Amino acid sequence: MIYYFCSMLTKKGFDDKMSYLNIKRFIVYFLYILFVIYIVLIGSNYIIKLKNISAQIHTPYPSLIFIAVFPIIIGILLALPQFITNFKKDGTWSLDWIKLISIGVPSLYITLMPLLYFSPIEKLVSYIFHAFNNSLIPQMVSGIILGYNTLVAFEKKQKNS
């Protein structure tokens, strides 16, 4: 099976160039998502360690900061292939402000909600936080959306000839 797979990677195993490029692209994306999954696993283990450290030093901030920042990093990693493809295009960079603000600001608020819980606006945050039943899932999903949206809001526009 490994021999068959390796022979597919050479151009001899393909009738046309498109099949070769599609297989190559598939392998690159597949290896990339395995890398992202590996980063998620490392981050999950690190969150557990940070929660233990936070319990020992009696402050929630180290784990809360990591829980807020880590999903943003995952979102950026998920958007990176699209950003690299965009980067290779000809044209000038532009920023989609509407996308960045309309999706980014609410996502940022929900992502930072556990940190804001300990701030002066705690009353407003506590109502929304309790509406999510004290779950961190909306915060993590929102962080992934924020990271992804931040990177894809930058795009290259082709010049009109």
Record keyword descriptors for this entry.
161 residues; two-stranded antiparallel ribbon; 7 helices; 2 strands; 76% helix; flat
Description:
Helices cover 76% and strands 5% of the residues. With 161 residues, the protein is mainly alpha-helical. The chain has a two-stranded antiparallel ribbon. Helix 3 packs parallel to helix 7. The chain is flat, with a radius of gyration of 21 Å. The mean pLDDT is 82.
Architecture blueprint of SSEs:
Blueprint: H1 2-9, H2 17-57, H3 61-88, E1 92-95, H4 97-111, H5 113-116, H6 122-131, H7 137-152, E2 154-157
Antiparallel strand pairs: 1-2
Helix pairs in contact: 2-3, 3-7, 4-7
The 3D shape can be described as flat
- Runs in which pLDDT lies below 50 for 5 or more consecutive residues are none
What Rg, in angstroms, do the CA atoms define?
Answer: 21 Å
Q: Helical percent range?
A: over 70%
Mean pLDDT: 82
In total, the number of strands is 2
> How many H/I helices?
7
What characterizes the major β-sheet?
A: 2 strands, antiparallel
Strand content: under 5%
Helical/strand content category: mainly alpha
- What is the string of helix and strand elements? HHHEHHHHE
* Through-space gap between termini: 50 Å
Please give the order of strands in the largest beta sheet: 1-2
